[in-house]
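Open question from group meeting: does this chain pack into something compact, or does most of it stay loose? Before anyone orders reagents, we agreed to write out a predicted structure and look at it together. Recording both the input and the output here so the notebook holds the full record.
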Amino acid sequence: MTAGNTRWTVHLVREDGRRSHTARVGLGLVAVLLIAAAILLVAGFGVGRSWATAEESATVRSLRAEVQTLRGEQARVAELASRLERVESEYRRLRGMLIDGTPQLEVPIAVPAGVPGGEAGLAQVSTPAWPVVERGFVTRSFGSLGDPGEQGHTGIDIAVPSGSYVRAIRTGIVESAGEDPVYGLYVRIAHGDGLSSLYGHNSWLFAAVGDSVERLQVIALSGSTGRSTAPHLHFEITQDGALLDPLAFVNEGAVRAAGGSGQNGVEQR
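Structure tokens returned:
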């Protein structure tokens, strides 16, 4: 090609030299081919970059989702840790009550109405104590009839929230404890002189057969086990095998200790 020519001659020779081919191309075609090659390069780079960006975006979204999930799990772990701490604190308090035999300061004591001097006056009530810490409602009285043909009620039912503290009314020895189809989880305590008390429908027992218990010692947590339709404590008193009215028995003890007339601090329903 000489100066000023606008065409190019391309001479192609086979490697063994036996055959050749000559082609003439103009400068314009060369320019077009170069431009097309440049466009293809730029387009390929752009597509590759877009693909990489899309992958990076997907990775970022995946990482953000994982971070969000981890934060949620961290919050649940923190909540579980807080619950565990509360449970351990409650366990330590219950363990202290079982070891010491007396309620701790955090546990409110229901003082029978009519006893002077509040908690100080409670010391005057030697026997018997009220069997629950929470103020409750007597929903079924002693001797009351339920379904037709059913015998009279053998004790009283005290409606209290599930998990309420159930305590011994007097010092004694646990003569039986366990699970019964009717009473559910129950504890029976022998107090001497033929007197015994029974606490039924509990959700948890702290006392076992043979244990010595003190007056006001927590022996169970109330519940709704056995033949029960709602959380409550079934409370029975027997004297030499004969059933007594627990409400009258507790009232009589409170009256004797208070030196006058009084009630047990619960409401009838």
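Observations to bring back to the group:
Confidence is low (pLDDT under 50) at residues 98-126, 257-269.
The two ends are 120 Å apart (CA to CA).
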